[in-house]
Amino acid sequence: MNLLAEPSIESVVIVNESRRRFLQGVGGLALGVYLGPALAEGAAAPAAAPAAAPAAPGAPFVPNAFVRIGTDNSVTVLAKHVEMGQGSYTGLATLLAEELDADWQQVKVEGAPADTERYKNLLFGIQGTGGSTAMANSHAQMRQAGAAARAMLVAAAAQDWKVPADGITVSRGVVHHAGSGRKASFGQLAEKAARQPVPQSVRLKDPKQFVLIGKAVARRKDTLEKTTGRAIFTQDYKLPGMLVAVVAHPPRFGAVPKSFDAAKARAIPGVVEVVQYNPGDPEVAAGVAVLAKDTWSARRGRDALSVEWDETKAFTLGSAQILEKYKALAATEGLVARKDGDAPAVLAAAAKPLQAQFEFPYLAHASMEPLNCLVQLDGDGCEIWNGEQFQTLDQASVAKLLGIAPEKVKLNQLYAGGSFGRRANPHADYLLEAVAIAKAARDKGVQAPVKMVWTREEDTRGGFYRPAFFHAVEVALDGAGKPAAWRQRIVGQSIAHGTALEGGMVKDGIDETSVEGAADMVYDIPNLRVELHTPADIGVPVQWWRSVGHSHSAFAVESTIDMAAAAAGQDPYEYRRKLLGKDARRKAVLELAAAKAGWGKPLKPGAAGERRGRGIAVHKSFETYVAQVAEVTVRPDGGFKVDRVVCAVDCGLAINPDVIKAQMEGGLGYGLSAALHGAITLDGGAVQQSNFDGYVPLRISEMPAVEVHIVPSAADPTGVGEPGTPVIAPAVANALAAATGKRLTRLPFDPALLKQA
Fold first, then answer.
1. What region does 173 belong to: left with phi over 0, alpha with psi -120 to 50, or beta?
2. Each residue of 677-698: pLDDT tens digit?
3. 234-312+371-453 CATH fold
4. pTM for this entry
């Protein structure tokens, strides 16, 4: 992953400094401000922090830590959210630099250390990245931190130049007083600014004054490092004397090592030790790890192992058996997630209700960087380097395993090569595994740092997938063709049950992530009932996947709405518009996507025998509204190509338009990959896929032409990392139905079902 020479540890820019080293920084201003809930645009902020006593010359002022200004004129933004490709570093820096009036070229970003009090996600209450919340929870916080730092620089200049502060301006990193002609860079003022008290209130810019927010000038801060190979991911990071661990996982979930023969593994040159380990969480697999001086030797050693597995408690059902269990549950009443009116009574009286069943397989996250983690145990402390996504929960889990206080677990945030939810595991599975391996090695006298590395095969077979789901939907239409009643039964495993997040995410037995996108639908349906079955006897480890519950509920809801429109003999776009009277923002993105796609105009004909179609879908997830129109071409044999996708998005204030467009493109590409190919299947409890030959990602030739249109908005920013994903599968399914008259209700799509008779 790193194409250049391995840098020394000291030269790695994004490695977190310890809090002590951070506080002892020489000759600079370091400032952070704790801020409460988001404020109205342009309103005065509450007190940022108590006024501080004047600091000694050269000493930084640190009531908290979001920005550091050095005498070298650098502006370093401390990002509490991990950068895993979604543009969080750039967004956070843009917010702060806007109010600071920094020159974008002088701004750099570092990952913040694990510190829940300073860096908690204001929407979660814990430190972590997920749910497309990075900009939503940091928006006011980062802007106010930048504004406070700017105020301190201005105060320092006014004091030094003996001029009124209100006559001083700041632009592109230069503080200027027109009356006297005095000017200074941030670096020149840093020491003096460090002695200023923290302002008790700051006023944010009017959006009309923005020079970075919403503009294309704020280029991504991680692009250069990643394109030149200088970006440091866990796989790149090395410590002196470090060993690499490659693991042998059980072939079935729930199995544990019974015995192993390491003779052949130890004979591999470079192999240092072989250990059996237990991560201490019943949901996290125990296994056997081979430690070697390099990855290849460790992998060869692992392949040479002979392990006997105890499968007494192993899960042994196959995908077909799981589906049959789900179908049987869907035939019975479940827990009620939403109840409006009396849907069962209206459906019972309907002559011929519309019925549909939707099937969704397990899905792997398939990040570009397989799971890995570097651990160093030192005395009674533990230090970890990885693409850290869930600091608070991971600290607690590791501390529990080691029997130490959470504050003795130091987490260093590096770049992550993708995640899509995988690294934000409530069970902290891969961190616990890495720490358990290092602990087992230490118990055998090996004191070296240990980097645990999963191969692509481990990453594919290792569990914690997007849960498989089954939806059964019944709809009764009234005389005008509108849905008079809608009942939707959802069956699938819970992600939150049995985790530290259960108390906040499960209510009356219902995991909100299982029903989101269905239980909160806004279509005008007087009698609506959504039910949930959560089987507790399926032993496949699951967790969130990009867009979580919306990844399946949007497909079921938007496909059913299209089917209802067809049954009513109405245009699917106009049908949706009529049912969205309660949601103006959702209607607006629907209208924008349709207009930009040329809805209602005939498509250009395909070649002889080809059928073409256009489909539409709209969905809200993570407070962001997305509509997509897909155009497809279907061949006589059923094979098809998604030619074009027009996407409209309303995510509130557009902080970085280029990032938003990239996330919509990437999100719909990720969703299309699952719709065309994605499926993890089990046979007798064993996962059948192992690499990209079996779990096939979207190929570049399959990516459609994409147009993204952003709705201008002054509303608070919302998420963009996930909302592009749920909409593409139903849009394509609806386009295929328009082209062929055949409705596909199972993912991934089976082109054979579209074959012309």
1. left
2. 999 999 999 999 999 999 999 9
3. Aldehyde Oxidoreductase; domain 4 (3.30.365)
4. 0.92
